[in-house]
Design brief:
The complex is a heterodimer. By secondary structure, chain A is α/β, with parallel strands linked by helices. Helix content of chain A is 36%, strand content 20%. By secondary structure, chain B is α/β, with parallel strands linked by helices. Classes of the chains: A alpha/beta, B alpha/beta.
Chain lengths: 285, 320
């Protein structure tokens, strides 16, 4: 019984820039090694039809997996990342941002929208891992603040789906401060009795885990998600500890009481609809 | 210091090459350019990196040192009531400037034996839960809270992860956002990432002159973004993590002066300077209606961040 819990869910990433005859229509699944028709994976919500491995979902794909058909209305703020520190490592932050925008077609990593789930009006926030690791800088902080503000005003439950490596280092101290900013915005939900459901997907780590993602009324982990504060390598190097293979998986988080449930991707929508049935929904408009 | 010698040496060579070019007419300009570039690279962020070294200085005063020097009395309290007492965070009641306050702070050990308990100030989940518990105690009696930050970061370990270090930090941040009593936080040494922030949510944030505060350690940043830990000097400069940087960026409220050469050269003077600043900010906050503080604190943090295309909105501040 326990063994099956700890079986690691394989995540594979579809390389968007993949070119050529094979890459265009077919992708290789890192789970089973088979070539799978790309469209087939897309239709299947990023799940390999052969072995069940999960591919990364873009924010758009995640949204269409969850919401009632054509109920999503994008209400994200029209903002983009600034470069408050003038940050340059081997490459400039500005260059990285431009590349991420071109690669994803997104302005930034966070999408906020009004939507319905099983008819229930909600505010949904989703982060896109392809955009600089879905990391949290000033833009994500502002978008989540905006989304929670809207949820509080409209008395709609707030659902956050994270796929993020943590803080956006290139924004230095400002990215750290977004942890407090998002927690402060979350307080408004509590004061007004507006429910907040946190959904952790692959990966939910670092500064986002240590702030808003951990502050849900109810916390769900997608099966196979990576959930942890410190990176594996940092832990190994600092402590010399050997890490168990299931370390920092959703199943590990569940075993240790960090999340309420672990849910398969295929069942995530039903699960959220079910949860919402228990919670107060008092939409004001 | 080794790097400074290296820079001095290179600069000497550079001068010599220039002299040679001028005197002998030989063209050494490619070498000169190369050397100049190397000097520039090494000098970059010299201030920032030096400050990181000072913040980590082994004889730099710790939280307990400051408490001993600043407080009339300190009564340490222990335990998170959930199964642990983390020595990397100390917390308790203190008498400061004639009144009772609550103090929480990271505690580094002075040697290997002490660091078996203190873990160099790297707190685990129990530390943040202890801090949140004792800050809650302070709130019940209206005691102002002083938080002293000095950590390389939260403890990265298997047990810390098993006991939900991420959630413990999140909860502590959330607790500090709703406490009704004044909170003054000060970075006295290392302000390492989420581990620092876990007790760092204040109405006021001060930094000692040679402290640093950063989203990630310079070494960690260098490893990830440069693919090379030894580029920490450049990372330190790029991160803008010094007290004066953070004052310029509008994230902290005051830089607390240290004695020339750093706090370790004269701990009494450093403690006097820190104590004076803490007292001044506490007095200012003491004049405010306690019910207003949590709303003001949240507004302050909700205004943090710089984006393009739209300015962060101002939020009307709620009460409790």
């Amino acid at each position: 019984m326990k063994i099956s819990w700890f079986r690691r869910q394989q995540y594979v990433q579809v390389k968007l820039e993949q070119k050529g005859e094979v890459g265009a229509l077919w992708v290789k699944c890192a789970g089973c090694g088979d070539l799978v028709f790309r469209e087939r994976i897309r239709e299947n919500h990023g799940i390999c039809p052969r072995c069940g491995a999960y591919f990364f979902l873009t924010a758009q794909e995640r949204i269409s997996l969850l919401v009632d058909e054509s109920s999503f209305q994008d209400v994200s703020k029209p903002i983009v990342a600034a470069d408050p520190l003038g940050f340059v490592d081997r490459r400039s932050y500005v260059g990285r941002l431009k590349e991420a925008q071109e690669k994803t077609g997104l302005r930034n990593e966070t999408v906020i929208g009004r939507a319905r789930l099983g008819g229930c009006p909600v505010i949904l926030a989703v982060t896109d891992f392809r955009f600089i690791g879905g990391s949290m800088g000033s833009v994500m902080g502002e978008q989540l603040d905006h989304g929670m503000g809207m949820a509080a005003r409209e008395l709609r439950p707030f659902i956050l789906v994270t796929s993020t490596g943590g803080a956006r280092m290139q924004e230095g101290i400002f990215s750290l401060m977004q942890m407090v900013k998002t927690a402060a915005a979350r307080r408004d939900l509590e004061r007004l009795g507006v429910p907040f459901v946190s959904v952790m997907t692959y990966p939910t780590t670092g500064g986002v885990l240590a702030s808003i993602a951990s502050l849900g009324d109810i916390t769900i982990a997608e099966k196979g998600a990576l959930i942890g504060f410190a990176g594996r390598r940092v832990i190994e190097q600092t402590t010399g500890e050997r890490l168990p293979p299931e370390f920092q998986t959703a199943e590990f988080a569940f075993e240790h009481g960090m999340v309420d449930r672990v849910v398969e991707r295929r069942k995530l929508r039903e699960e959220l609809i079910h949860i919402l049935e228990f919670l107060p929904v008092r939409q004001s408009q | 210091m080794r790097i400074d010698e290296l820079i001095a040496e290179l600069q000497e060579k550079l001068a010599e090459l220039k002299r040679l070019t001028r005197d002998s007419g030989l063209d050494a300009s490619p070498q000169i350019a190369e050397l100049a570039e190397e000097v520039a690279r090494l000098s970059l962020g010299r201030g920032a990196w030096e400050q990181v070294q000072l913040a980590r200085h082994p004889s730099r005063p710790t939280t307990m040192d400051y408490l001993g020097l600043m407080m009339d009395d300190f009564y340490e309290l222990h335990g998170d009531r959930l199964g642990s007492d983390d020595g990397a965070i100390v917390a308790g009641l203190a008498k400061f400037a004639g009144r009772t306050v609550v103090v929480v702070g990271h505690q580094k050990g002075k040697n290997l034996v002490e660091n078996r308990i203190r873990r160099s100030g790297m707190a685990g989940p129990g530390g943040y839960r202890k801090a949140a518990r004792i800050m809650g105690l302070g709130e019940r009696y209206g005691f102002p809270i002083i938080a002293l930050i000095d950590t390389p970061g939260a403890y990265p370990g298997v047990k810390a992860e098993e006991h939900n270090i991420g959630g413990a930090i999140a909860d502590s941040i959330y607790t500090m956002l709703r406490l009704r009593t004044p909170i003054v936080a000060a970075v006295i040494g290392e302000g390492g990432s989420g581990g620092a922030l876990g007790i760092g949510v204040g109405d006021r944030l001060l930094m000692m002159e040679n402290a640093y505060y950063s989203v990630i350690s310079p070494e960690g940043c260098a490893a990830i973004l440069w693919g090379d830990r030894s580029r920490a000097r450049e990372a330190a400069a790029a991160l803008r993590l010094t007290a004066h940087d953070l004052l310029d960026l509008g994230v902290i409220d005051e830089v607390v002066q240290e004695p020339t050469g750093g706090a370790h050269t004269d701990p009494q003077e450093a403690a006097r300077s820190l104590g004076e600043a803490l007292r001044r900010h506490m007095d200012e906050l003491g004049g405010m209606v306690p019910g207003e503080l949590p709303g003001l604190r949240r507004s302050k943090f909700r205004g943090m961040g710089i984006c393009e295309g739209a300015m962060p909105v101002m939020h009307e501040q709620g009460g409790e």
